[in-house]
Write a structure and sequence with these properties.
Blueprint (H helix, E strand, L loop, with lengths): L1 H17 L13 E3 L8 E3 L1 H9 L3 H11 L6 E7 L3 E6 L1 H14 L13 E5 L11 H19 L3 E8 L4 H17 L14 H14 L7 H4 L13 H42 L6 E4 L1 H5 L2 H11 L3 E4 L2 E4 L10 E4 L7 H14 L4 E7 L4 H12 L7 E6 L2 E5 L2 E2 L12 H8 L1 H9 L7 E4 H5 L6 H21 L6 H6 L7 H11 L1 H10 L3 H21 L7 H24 L10 H7 L1
Parallel strand pairs: 5-6, 5-11, 6-7, 11-12, 13-15
Antiparallel strand pairs: 1-2, 2-4, 3-4, 8-9, 9-10, 13-14
Helix pairs in contact: 1-3, 2-3, 4-19, 4-22, 5-15, 5-20, 6-7, 6-9, 7-9, 11-12, 14-15, 17-21, 17-22, 19-21, 19-22, 20-21, 21-22
The protein binds one RNA strand through helix 2, helix 6, strand 9, strand 10 and helix 13.
Length: 595
RNA sequence: GCGCUUGUAGCUCAGCUGGAUAGAGUAUCGGCCUCCGAAGCCGAAGGCCAUGGGUUCGAAUCCCAUCAAGCGCGCCA
């Protein structure tokens, strides 16, 4: 529709140019926006305002010239000049109603668009280290990444959802060692658990599995375990060198094979836990990409060679550095440490290269706000390897505070006290959890009100939307019981009977869905969809309270049913994209049945 | 100290690439069930868009400064 209006205006401008009223070299930027206020019609353009300067004429005068030149359109009822010089377009009522037919025909494809131009992209999100279960802090990235991926997919991107598994680093060694130490404890050895080890109970559970599978095979006595290990922090030493010493001993005592077994059990258990948690959270991935495979293959070496060939690497203090400052980063970054080990950043570079080698045309990263320091260096690496930095995009999600009884829930990994994502889902349900995380802009700090999310009341925005959906389902049920069967054709034929204010409002809302989808995709903002669904539900609730759908008049009834069905389709579609369900009934026993 | 992000109603937040009278929810107050589900609807009240400058036809939006909050600044991952 916007396109149609643009063509009308382009035509008018051309004619004015031909008549010599507008200069020939004028190339106006004609943009339309849906009006916020219905008194301003359906669509408005500010083009007369933007032309005021180049034409040195008052905007309202220009607007009048354009209107006089506009040709008739069967879709446009009238065009008005308003305010400082806006052109307000009013569509014919008939034109507005056509959208219902479209929704009923396209069903869940309504709103699909080609904004993404078939671009092949990876969306990487969460990617938490597999050293423990996901906590609520990861929830926002998960909800955001999953919802955004869904929206991008509907908007013409080819999306690959990816989880980067950091299964190759010091943290993983600490994990494996933590498990081994708990195992020794279980076997009756005396162990003082290190300050910097992973404290959680889940480590003990994994240790149990190790013991069950391998019995006493990995036992060493206390003296061997602590041989030449520097003192821990609690004993006045350094917790980092203490744990490193333990890791070294673990590797030496167990030997490569046995150590590998412990390592593998730990990784496998934690990773499958993470997968379960995400699945429970209605988040799915297309691939789980292992960092290890970058090391095992030659990708890291090739990536570094690529940089080296272009003289972007140099040696200093025994380490190898990447000239990130050359590409706008604030400092150069080490890629190979003095001890010969590759840094985490080296893997990142390789992974980036790998994404483009696999044929992706864009890489989108969803990071927590604490990682914002990575943007510059990642873009620098891209530039260094000859990848267009515009093809990599990093979106930050701000932190979420959990609020319970009006108080911030304190969390810290040090205290070992954190609320797991799984626990949150158990408490508030997937629907509310997913919705709460994405209902605010991702770059906004978020207060996640647990009590509100738990409340099964009007206070809870997700229920509000689901209720509208359930309500519509209930109408259809009811009429079906009374043998007033819904007839699409009769409904479509009677659309001209939809004249009530609330019906017009609802039509406006329905018609704007595709635009919301594009906007959400373009600005990477799922919360736009969440807000939109609230508005759509609001429009329906108002309508429902003002008018009876199940009236005796067959024509009007079916027209209203068509309108209701169109609303229902969009509600269900939108909820699905955000990872929430669209229940047929809000009665709790029915909700359970649904699940 | 430097850098990134943020500051809008009592509270939680929208406000698209600068546009028309700054909007929701919640809390508060007042109405609406003989009627398809009241987890709903209708109405009232609530604002120096942190502060001070600047850019222009026009600024919550862009620029600068100040104040306040969060985060980051390792040969950690």
């Amino acid at each position: 529709m916007i396109k149609h209006l643009q063509e009308l205006l382009e035509k008018a401008v051309e004619d004015l140019q031909r008549k010599g009223i507008f200069p020939k070299d004028l190339a106006p930027n004609i943009s339309f926006e849906r009006t916020r206020n219905k008194d301003h019609g359906d669509f408005a353009t500010n083009m007369a305002l933007t032309l005021a300067k180049p034409l040195s004429k008052p905007p309202r005068e220009i607007a009048q010239l354009i209107i006089d030149e506009l040709i008739e359109s069967s879709h446009v009822a009238k065009v008005e000049i308003a305010g400082p010089g806006f052109l307000n377009f009013f569509l014919t009522e008939n034109c507005r109603r056509q959208v219902i037919k479209q929704v009923l025909k396209l069903r869940d494809k309504f709103g699909d668009n080609q904004f993404g131009n078939d671009k092949k992209i990876t969306v990487e999100f969460v990617s938490a280290n597999p050293t423990g279960p996901l906590h609520v802090g990861h929830g926002r990235g998960a909800a955001y990444g999953a919802s955004l991926s869904n929206i991008l997919e509907k908007s013409g991107y080819q999306v690959q959802r990816e989880y980067y598994v950091n299964d190759n680093g010091r943290q993983m060694d600490i994990l494996a060692t933590s498990v081994w130490l708990r195992y020794l404890e279980l076997c009756g050895e005396k162990v003082v658990f290190p300050d910097n080890g992973y404290q959680g109970d889940y480590i003990v559970n994994i240790a149990r599995k190790v013991r069950k599978k391998y019995g006493d095979k990995f036992i060493f006595n206390n003296q061997e375990v602590y041989e030449a290990v520097p003192a821990d922090e609690k004993d006045g030493g350094n917790k980092e060198s203490h744990i490193d010493g333990l890791v070294t001993n673990a590797k030496n005592l167990l030997g490569k094979e046995s150590y590998g077994k412990v390592f593998k059990i730990a990784l496998k258990n934690i990773l499958s836990g993470i997968k379960e948690d995400l699945e429970k959270f209605n988040v799915s991935y297309d691939s789980w990409f292992s960092e290890k495979q970058l090391h095992d293959g030659d990708t890291i070496d090739r990536a570094l060679e690529l940089l080296d060939d272009k003289k972007y690497l140099y040696e200093k203090d025994g380490a190898i550095w990447f000239m990130a400052t050359h590409f706008g980063d604030e400092k150069d970054r080490v890629v190979t440490r003095e001890n010969g080990q590759k840094t985490y950043f080296a893997s990142d570079i390789a992974y980036l290269l790998n994404k483009f080698e696999r044929g992706f045309e864009g890489a989108l990263y969803v990071f927590g706000a604490d990682h914002h320091g990575y943007i510059a260096r990642l873009k620098a690496a891209a530039k260094g390897m000859g990848i267009n930095p515009n093809d990599i995009e990093i979106v930050l999600t701000q932190f979420a505070n959990l609020i319970e009884h009006g108080e911030k829930v304190q969390m810290g990994t040090r205290s070992g006290k954190f609320v797991s994502l799984s626990q949150l889902v158990d408490d508030v349900g997937v629907d509310a959890a997913r919705f709460f995380y994405v209902m605010r802009s991702h770059d906004q700090h978020l207060d996640f009100d647990l009590d509100l999310a738990k409340s099964q009341s009007s206070d809870n925005p997700v229920y509000y939307i689901q209720y509208a959906h359930a309500r519509i389902c209930s109408i259809f049920d009811k009429l079906e019981q009374q043998a007033m069967h819904h007839n699409l054709e009769i409904g479509n034929a009677g659309l001209n009977l939809l004249v009530a204010d609330q019906e017009q409002d609802l039509l406006r809302a329905i018609a704007s869905y595709p635009e919301v989808m594009v906007a959400a995709a373009r600005t990477r903002a799922p919360h736009l969809l969440a807000n939109y669904l609230r508005e759509l539900a609001q429009n329906y609730h108002s309508y429902y309270n003002a008018h009876q759908v199940g009236v005796d008049d067959e024509n009007l009834r079916n027209a209203r049913l068509n309108l209701s069905l169109a609303t229902k389709i969009i509600l269900a579609n939108g909820l699905k994209l955000l990872g929430a369900s669209a229940p047929v009934s809000m009665f709790s026993e029915d909700m359970k049945e649904q699940a």
